Amino acid sequence: PTSDDTPEVLNRALSNLSSRWKNWWVRGILTLAMITFFFIIIYLGPMVLMMIVMCVQIKCFHEIITIGYNVYHSYDLPWFRTLSWYFLLCVNYFFYGETVTDYFFTLVQREEPLRILSKYHRFISFALYLTGFCMFVLSLVKKHYRLQFYMFGWTHVTLLIVVTQSHLIIHNLFEGMIWFIVPISCVICNDIMAYMFGFFFGRTPLIKLSPKKTWEGFIGGFFSTVLFGLLLSYVMSGYRCFTCPVEFNNDTNSFTVDCEPSELFQLQEYNIPLVLQSVVGWKTVRMYPFQIHSIALSTFASLIGPFGGFFASGFKRAFKIKDFANTIPGHGGIMDRFDCQYLMATFVNVYIASFIRGPNPSKLIQQFLTLRPDQQLHIFNTLKAHLVDKGML
């Protein structure tokens, strides 16, 4: 049985309602609270967003590891939790060290300690992991080898699911706030609208792993999310603070989001297919190219994203638990809210790398300036010869 973790003030206010409608109101009120919090952290800027992502990552890791620890603890083998958090530290050091080296290159080169850490970053990361690996081997206890290796795998799969994905979320953020906000918002929209359509119109079960999910909710969530993605993308594409890449300004030691908008965020005219012209009455439509990409993002969020939730449902059923935790009344734990977000983060990162991102001249110049003078001269002469051959000089 699960305890009622609903705040007392809501319990009193909703005491006359049936459990079904009480749950609806609790979820609705706390969903609005979470959306409000989401708006606030967006307003506070990229640095706060990255810190929130880190906090969410740690909390999700804690929730998953705690489930394993509840099983593991009964054997009085205390190293599991210690090693789990140690490996979390190691993996975060590796990923965030890579991020700092990549996006704060000039700052790293300017500070001697950072330059040394950057140069030997991967070796240090490997040494840290190797230390944890040796600690695990030394912790092996006779008669419990199988369980310990099982939990070793548990920790590493958790790291793969949680830490790697949160790292990709931050990479998406550096591409521009819009690549962070739109995908996350699409997942949130799909979750809300699928619940709403399922609550009021749901009749046909969708999947056994989640008995409350219905085809009506799934389909309603899809169309609502695609429409929402188009509208949100249209609004955000007009603001540089959302469309420009997040870059670190070495002069002010702060993040900047100012640039000349790329073609993705400039209104263009598109011809409407002849089949639809008679329906809508238009021959052309003006829209941002990013809106076309938003259709891919919202489609993934509504059709494939829920499988992250189904995966989490299967995991919880395997251990006979309702939620990962009871952090948010009516919603469960933080991981219960982010199970689809992590899958979405990977898709967005792959999508950007495959269809959006091109060579970054500023990063090439930064790396060029760190070379020895003779290396710089060699590159200059090679580039000059190439441009002469092309007839550009």
From TrEMBL:
Pathway assignment: Phospholipid metabolism; CDP-diacylglycerol biosynthesis; CDP-diacylglycerol from sn-glycerol 3-phosphate: step 3/3; Lipid metabolism
Broad EC category: transferase
Family annotation (InterPro entries): PC_trans, PC_Trfase_euk
Pfam families: CTP_transf_1 (PF01148)
Cellular component GO terms, alphabetical: endoplasmic reticulum membrane
Localization annotation: Membrane
GO biological-process terms attached to the record: CDP-diacylglycerol biosynthetic process
Protein's membrane topology: Multi-pass membrane protein
Coiled coil: none
Keywords: Lipid biosynthesis, Lipid metabolism, Membrane, Nucleotidyltransferase, Phospholipid biosynthesis, Phospholipid metabolism, Transferase, Transmembrane, Transmembrane helix
Entry's transmembrane regions: 24-56, 77-96, 123-141, 148-170, 176-202, 214-236, 290-312
E.C. code: 2.7.7.41
Molecular-function GO term, any one: phosphatidate cytidylyltransferase activity
Source organism, top-level taxon: Eukaryota
Catalytic activity: a 1,2-diacyl-sn-glycero-3-phosphate + CTP + H(+) = a CDP-1,2-diacyl-sn-glycerol + diphosphate; 1,2-di-(9Z,12Z-octadecadienoyl)-sn-glycero-3-phosphate + CTP + H(+) = 1,2-di-(9Z,12Z-octadecadienoyl)-sn-glycero-3-cytidine-5'-diphosphate + diphosphate; 1-octadecanoyl-2-(5Z,8Z,11Z,14Z-eicosatetraenoyl)-sn-glycero-3-phosphate + CTP + H(+) = 1-octadecanoyl-2-(5Z,8Z,11Z,14Z-eicosatetraenoyl)-sn-glycero-3-cytidine-5'-diphosphate + diphosphate; 1-octadecanoyl-2-(9Z,12Z-octadecadienoyl)-sn-glycero-3-phosphate + CTP + H(+) = 1-octadecanoyl-2-(9Z,12Z-octadecadienoyl)-sn-glycero-3-cytidine-5'-diphosphate + diphosphate
Family annotation (PANTHER family): PHOSPHATIDATE CYTIDYLYLTRANSFERASE (PTHR13773), PHOSPHATIDATE CYTIDYLYLTRANSFERASE 2 (PTHR13773:SF4)
Similarity section: Belongs to the CDS family.
Protein name, as recorded: Phosphatidate cytidylyltransferase
